[in-house]
Design brief:
This protein is an alpha/beta fold and about 400 residues long. It is built from 13 helices and 10 strands.
Length: about 400
């Protein structure tokens, strides 16, 4: 299945809109069960972060990245910390890494792939720049492919992951700031890195990549030349799944992956919006489980929570939170308009972490709004979509830089 922005035939638009309406008629309970989840530079002087400029993209520190964390094909790699924007709109520290391919840089420097990673956890020990990617057998070959195509790779950890605070999981605008400002920072450290860049991401990073695509020009300003974005396994519209959450709902265990995604969302929301006092909506069991989400990486949390019934963690309905739907949409909703560069969305039809209806409903809105989107489905699962999409996304991205 392939839809491409304004190039979609009228009948195809109708098909997408009709399918979207059909999806909307599916019960919210079923939707909930299906969609929850998913040359070495010297270190900067050791001044306290508060003593340094807090302008976005300002580098705070750099250090060599251990060789066992290098993407295959890289000839240089650094870990760095830098200033960006947090959930409160103020300065926040983020960390990340960059990787440079072999050979002399082309005129103007290496074009950049900014990688938005998928779910690894919220604890600092889960940060990819410290521990490697969540699924190295999948992500290292994927990222190595971009290096082999002649791109530098810049990979943020996101605010709060590897730096102080709790990462606001699925807070799209904060993730977008982290991505954009990581490119700014990497260019300060290594002058061989170009200002021309595109963003790609999977799962949590798929949502981050598409949201970054919406705000990249605005957040990057005149210093960066943003070209477009790619997202696979994009967790779109899942905020709708949480609207009826409360005592007894959902009433059954959803399995480790979906449950752990939900717990990460609650932990991130609690950190990003302390004013809602989320703990007051949780049972003692609920507070214990959300606390554990701040400490356990993805695989550990999925195993620990596979028998948990999410309906048991609430002491009262989340709908009692003032303007709950608006708050969730602002926090984790994927934008459906305002894109100024082409985007590509890939979706696995057999995906059970972020099922196809989530992506299809997002694409339906994007097409209706005349956004420059290319959409393609793959007869595979969540991770498979990332792998199989390379046949389409590598040439798509190459076209962005021509």
């Amino acid at each position: 299945m392939l839809f491409t922005g304004s190039l979609v035939e009228e009948s195809e638009v109708s098909d997408v809109e009709n399918l979207s309406r059909s999806i909307a008629r599916v019960s919210l309970a079923a939707f909930c069960a299906a969609t929850i989840g998913s040359a070495v530079a010297a270190p900067v002087a050791s001044a306290a972060p508060s003593a340094l400029s807090q302008e976005t993209g300002t580098v705070v520190s750099t250090e060599p990245l251990p060789k066992d964390l290098w993407i295959p094909g890289a000839v240089d790699a650094k870990r760095f910390t830098y200033w960006t924007i947090g959930s409160d709109g103020g300065p926040a520290l983020s960390s990340g890494a960059y990787y440079v391919p072999a050979g002399p840089a082309p005129a103007g420097g290496w074009p950049v792939i900014a990688w938005a990673h998928g779910t690894t956890g919220l604890d600092d020990s889960c940060a990819p720049s410290l521990a490697g990617p969540g699924l190295p057998e999948r992500d290292y070959p994927y990222l190595g492919r971009w290096l082999s195509e002649g791109y530098a790779v810049v990979a943020t950890d996101y605010v709060g992951l590897g730096t102080p605070g709790v990462m606001p999981y699925l807070d799209g605008k904060v993730e977008a700031h982290s991505v954009v400002d990581s490119v700014k920072a990497a260019r300060v450290i290594d002058p061989s890195i170009s200002n021309r860049w595109a963003v790609v991401g999977q799962s949590q990073g798929g949502g981050a990549a598409i949201t970054t695509a919406r705000y990249a020009t605005e957040y990057g300003g005149d210093t960066l030349d943003y070209r477009g974005g790619v997202g696979t396994g994009v967790p779109a519209n899942i905020e709708l799944a949480f609207l009826p959450a409360g005592p007894g709902f959902p009433p059954v265990a959803l399995g480790g992956n979906l449950t752990s995604y939900a717990l990460y969302i609650f932990a991130g929301l609690r950190a990003a919006h302390p004013e809602i006092d989320l703990d007051s909506y949780l049972t003692p069991l609920g507070k214990e489980q959300v606390d554990s989400a701040e400490k356990l990486c993805a695989g550990e949390l999925a195993e620990a929570s596979k028998k948990l019934v999410l309906g048991d963690i609430f002491s009262r309905p989340l709908s009692e939170i003032p303007n709950f739907q608006g708050l969730l949409t602002d926090y984790m909703g994927v934008p459906t308009s305002g894109y100024d560069r082409p985007i590509f969305i890939g979706q696995g039809l057999l995906d059970t972490d972020v099922p196809a209806p989530a992506a299809i409903s997002l694409v339906a809105a994007l097409v209706t709004n005349g956004e420059p989107v290319t959409f393609k489905t793959y007869n595979t699962d969540h991770s498979g979509a990332l792998v199989e999409s390379q046949a389409d996304t590598v040439p798509f991205v190459a076209d962005l830089f021509r």
